[in-house]
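Methods — Computational structure assignment.
A single polypeptide chain was analysed. Its primary sequence is given first, followed by the predicted tertiary structure written as structure tokens.
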Amino acid sequence: MKTNNIQKTGSRLMASASHLLKSFSLAAVMVAGCAAGLNAQTDSIVKPSWWFGVAAGANFNFYEGTTQRLNSDILTRTAFHKGQGVGLYLAPLIEYHRPTSRWGVMLQAGYDNRKGKFNQVLSPCNCPADLSTNLSYITIEPSLRFAPFKKGFYLYAGPRFAFNMDKSFDFHQKRNPDFPEQPEDPQVSGEFSDVNNMLISMQVGAGYDISLSSAKSLSQFVISPFVAFHPYFGQDPRSVESWNITTLRGGIAFKFGRGHKHTAEDSDKAAVAVAEPTVNFSVNSPENIPVARRVRETFPLRNYVFFDLGSTEIPERYVLLKPDEVASFKEDQLEVFKPKNLSGRSERQMIAYYNILNIVGDRMGKNPGAKISLVGSSEQGNDDGKAMAESVKKYLVDVFGINGSRIATEGRAKPELPSQREGGTQELVLLREGDRRVSISSASPEMLMEFQSGPDAPLKPVELAVVQEAPLDSYITFNVEGSDEAFSSWSIETKDSDGKIQYFGPYTQTSVAVPGKSILGTRTQGDYVVTMVGKTKSGNTVRKDTKVHMALWTPAENEQGMRYSVIFGFNESEAANMYEKYLSEIVAPKIPKNGRVIIHGHSDVIGDEVHNKRLALARARDVQAILVASLAKAGRKDVKFEVHGFGEDQGLAPFGNKYPEERFYNRTVVIDIIPQK
């Protein structure tokens, strides 16, 4: 008997809930159909941002837990557990959300009924017992509103603050059905004890705004079917026992807002909001892209030997000869004496640098009057720095037979021009690695670079004859002017005639150079559709296409370029103090008539990427200014210059960044001199 009653009650409640939800859905569909015709008109007003109205709906309440002591006077013989019921929800509302924004806020505050009836239980006398309640609250529900498509559909979530206003109950202990003549206890009404006066819980929901007004009307009316879920967290009506409530709410909100007519200012704002960012996209693909060029390179020698932290021994990456190998050493055949562990990038140049001690020893042997000073700098103090300098001296004396009196040694805590400056806080480990070194200085001109003098003057450069792979002027350059302001990032898609698509990026700089071979692969030439895909800072996508023909070929047999490099100090961008005379009197006269000069500046990876890019460009432009001024003095204006600042771009950096010597050589400007074809 008990089971049938419970099942019937539950079935009736579920049927009522299903019928109510279907009614809401049908109403929403009918209103949407009516509103579709109205919204088909052209907007002529600015839609409201503020909305006012009322929300009405049904709370489908589901009880869990245990309820037995109703108050101090009534303790039921058997505990009640599950239950359910449907209560009224009615609340005024306020909403704020700008027409073009996804985000907004909502506030609803009103009557919130959580009434319900517990499932019937049997007392020990086999008597059915019923318990129902008209539990209700004044509820305040602020919410954050999110419209993912900037359309009618929206989600919302927020806290619920509920203040109890009704805690009444009805309890009825019925007679045992087996004894119909037994007198029945009267129904008892009362109020629950130990009821929480305030509850803090949460609610999440979704709704859909359907316009009821003409787009030309200033007064805008909206109807919004909605559904919300109130989990049991925080919904314990009483401070005793374990009764809790989970609620599913369904309803309709009716909203009113007042728009205003379009003005010139509104039109400007709308134009700014929807206008495509102004960017200029172009691709520079050289008509002929050489894969290699022979280059006579004048490679500078930085006068430093870097030591590993915690060691005063010359690192193994430097080439160290045996005394019987000295006679075979030749400065123009350095490839015979390769270091054990080469980084793999700019191999020929790093072979030259890692032979620096052998080059110094060879030059001192050929110039008996030359003297050098070795200054060891160590964070461990003067003695440790002196030990590093003595290691270099011992090698030159023992292997090259240099008289020790020609080599002075000194120890310092810091070099005269330290990388780690006072007050610096970033990337200190890399800076300290750069300061742990032995500096080689000399007053003998035959040891030094042309026009250089002083304790930090570079050594005389080495001349290398190399095949330059993928020269810079063979790169395909993608330019997106204005991208720094319009986009958070942009990328490139290339599509060949066979439909093959390649992707490059994303990038944040305004210009990017990519080796032609990366795109062409084994092809000698091809037609491509190049698409720039920009991501705006607001999350939109901008696409621009252009068609490009690319070609790959090997330069003529007699084409040979020249390359010079100048090295800068840490965070320095002016070359005039050290290199002006060298650039004016050594490099500028080597530029042939109608030649082309490509100048590209670089930096190491220490510091901010944007700052390093600006620093590299400033270095390149400073070198260009010196060369242009020198050519102008000779009455020449026939040279075409191309200047790039690549910063720390590790795809284009001349060297790696693992060791301090590589980072020092990356603080450079490379000058490629290309004769007229």
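Note: The first strand starts at residue 45 and ends at 46.
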